[in-house]
Amino acid sequence: MESRIIVCGLGRTGYQIFSLLRQQGIPVIGIHDQPLSFADPDVIVGDLKATPTLMAAGIEQAHTLVIASSDDALNLAILMQARVLNPHIRVINRLFNTSLGDRLDHTLTHHVSLSVAALAAPVFAFAALGSRAIGQLRLFNQTWPIHEEYIDEYHPWQGRKLSELWDERSRMLIYYLPADKRMDLVSAVIRGQVLQVGDRLIIGSQPNASVQAVRRSWRQRGTKLVNNLRQFQRYGQSMVVVTLVLLVTILIATLTYVCFNRHTSIIDALYFSVGMITGAGGEEQVIEQAPNSIKVFTALMMLLGAGVIGICYALLNDFVLGTRFRQFWDTVQVPAHHHYIVCGLGGVGIQIVQHLRSCGYDVVAIEQDANCRFLSIARALKVPVILGDASLPTTLKAANLAHASALLAVTSNDTANLEIALTAKGLTPKSTAIVRYQDPTFARMAHQVFGFEAVLSPTELVAPTFAAAALGGRILGNGMTGHSLWVALSTLITAGHPFCHRVVKDAAMDADFVPLYLETGQRRVHGWDLLNTCLQTGDVLYLTMPATHLDQLCSVPAPEMSGMMVH
Q1: CA-CA distance, 182 to 454, in Å (whole number)?
Q2: DSSP code of 161?
Q3: Calpha distance 59→75 (Å, rounded)
Q4: Lowest-pLDDT range, 89-93, 151-155, 290-294?
Q5: First-to-final CA distance of the chain
Q6: Would you give the DSSP letter of residue 533?
Q7: Are 143 and 122 in contact (CB under 8 A)?
Q8: Are 536 and 493 in contact (CB under 8 A)?
Q9: What secondary structure does DSSP assign to 355-382, as a single string?
Q10: Is the alpha carbon torsion for 454, 210, 379, 218 positive or negative?
């Protein structure tokens, strides 16, 4: 039995990848450790890491192996067994441990590690920020959200020419589906096609959070300083009381000595009082001829001063040398408004937190497990963490839900996520709720029934990326349009490349791809200049194309495929 691609581990994510590849007409064999609920001739049942099972699936002749189990240890065992049987097989490996995945990618040839959490998190973050993202695209060291524009009679682009939207640097036209006929995007742009009701456009939008991040950074610092001052007020009260007692003691002593001996100046009396109370001494002649009552008074002042000075020094040392000073600067407060609440610091949750923080947004995390492995990462990012049950109203109120921009319920428990989102809506009906639901079918149902702003399934979000990676090349992004999978990639133009010495627009119309931009020499070519450029050896073309047409590039040797994999 021969197969071009093998998908090993047909859990929820694995089966979604398997189905998607088969839907694109790709020869694929699945391996699972237990029979499916229905018979499938393309599925081998057996121990995933056993030699007989892999041999039965045709591992020796296979081109690519997708390891999709949720167990990192099992996936590593499958990887090693597969490489023993077929040292040259290309492996797409699902790993929760991204640092281990990076090491494997640098150690092994033809090995690509992907993390479900890392791939899904940006889409959750984009949804919380208000974008109807269906995927992501990695360009210019930024993650661009990808969304679909459906042209209805009220859409501002209805009646506009596609050519008017083409030469826009902050927006990438990725795919075009006209309502009445089949036409590729480049042909539509060149012919001046007008957008009509029913047309659909897939678009990548450049993130513009840099300026906002700077503004938020200054605002965050100011807010943090004010909040820390307020919190420090309680500690400062004791310092103020002790200081006032010390000053009053010095004042009483100074006035007493001046009144006793009017020949003593106020400065001398003050100097002696301070020296006497602090124990430093000085100007002893002030009381040398004083009566016993003044000497007794001086002795009492010495005892009182020693106590006050001791307390004052203790508080000052605790603040400067102890933890108070550090707490003053490092204490993280729950933001008062315009923040994002992430419920659940699992793999997806911590990735969302990191993505939002990198964009400069305020984040509050709620985690029920005090031993969660990602608590230290969140705290290192200066993110306030509330330990508690996010489904309880008191916990959400503590996170200032009423003034939050959005709430993301992304624990690993679907029921808990629904309960958290419903509780949030009950407290603040106008709040934005983004919900994680593992099963794609029930995710769509939950969105329809409960009316949450977005109910996203990580499985549905990441399956196209695994499928696209399995088809070859270095993937920049991907997405689904209807039932068609498209991928974004970069390809190095060499003498033997099918696009070499061809004008970009001609090659695009023939091969049904959409050029994004071109790197030639030391410059980047965009817009209309890109369409009219003739591809030369050494150019790097960034493009999107249907997965079913990738065979046009699969014949290109591996070194000629370049780009940046989204991890």
Answers
A1: 31
A2: B
A3: 15
A4: 290-294
A5: 32
A6: P
A7: yes
A8: yes
A9: HHHHTT-EEEEEES-TT-TTHHHHHHTT
A10: negative
List C-alpha distances in Å: 549 to 88, 118, 222, 401.
24, 27, 53, 47
DSSP string, 176-217: EE-SSS---HHHHHHTTPBP-TT-EEEEEE---HHHHHHHHH
Contacts of 350 (CB under 8 A, 6+ apart): 117, 374, 377, 378
Pairing of strands 43-45, 28-32: parallel
Cβ pair 286, 272 in contact under 8 A: yes
Q: What is the pLDDT of residues 507-555, one digit of tens each?
A: 999 888 899 889 988 888 988 899 999 999 988 888 888 877 766 664 4
Take residue 57 and report the two structure tokens written for it: 């699936």
Query: pLDDT digit string (tens) for 426-457?
Result: 999 999 999 999 988 888 899 889 989 989 99
Decide if 31 contacts 51 (C-beta within 8 A): no
More confident residue, 330 or 513: 513
C-alpha span between 343 and 258 (Å, rounded): 67
pLDDT at residue number 210: 41
How many other β-carbons are positioned within 10 Å of the β-carbon of residue 508? 25
Measured at the CA of 565, the angle between CA 561 and CA 567, to 5 degrees, comes to 165
Residue 493, token pair as written in the block? 């133009």
In this prediction, residue 215 has a pLDDT band, given cuts at 50, 70 and 90, of very low
CA distance 562 to 544: 14
Strand partners, 485: 480
pLDDT bin (cut points 50, 70, 90) of residue 231 is: low
Identify the helix (H) or strand (E) that includes residue 301.
Answer: helix 292-320
β-strands 339-343, 142-150 pairing: unpaired
**How does 47-77 read in b/e, with b if 16+ C-beta sit within 10 Å?**
ebbeeebbeebbbeebbbbbbbbeeeebbbb
Residue 411's alpha-carbon distances to 117, 348, 352, 431, in angstroms, are 12, 8, 12, 19
Phi, psi angle pair for 384, to nearest 5°: -65, 135
Could you tell me if 104 and 114 are in contact, meaning their C-beta atoms sit under 8 angstroms apart? no
Distance from chain centroid for Cα 108 = 27
Q: What value does the mean pLDDT of the chain take?
A: 82
Nearest-10 Cα torsion for 531, 533, 539, 540: -10
The per-residue DSSP string of 483-511 comes to: TEEEEEEEEE--TT-TTTTSBHHHHHHHH
The structure's pTM equals 0.69
In degrees and rounded to multiples of 5, residue 475 shows phi and psi of -90, 130
pLDDT category at 468 given cuts 50, 70, 90 is confident
Cα–Cα distance measured from residue 222 to residue 228, given in angstroms and rounded to the nearest whole number: 10
- Using CA atoms of 192, 195, 198, 204 in order, give the dihedral in degrees to the nearest 10: 100
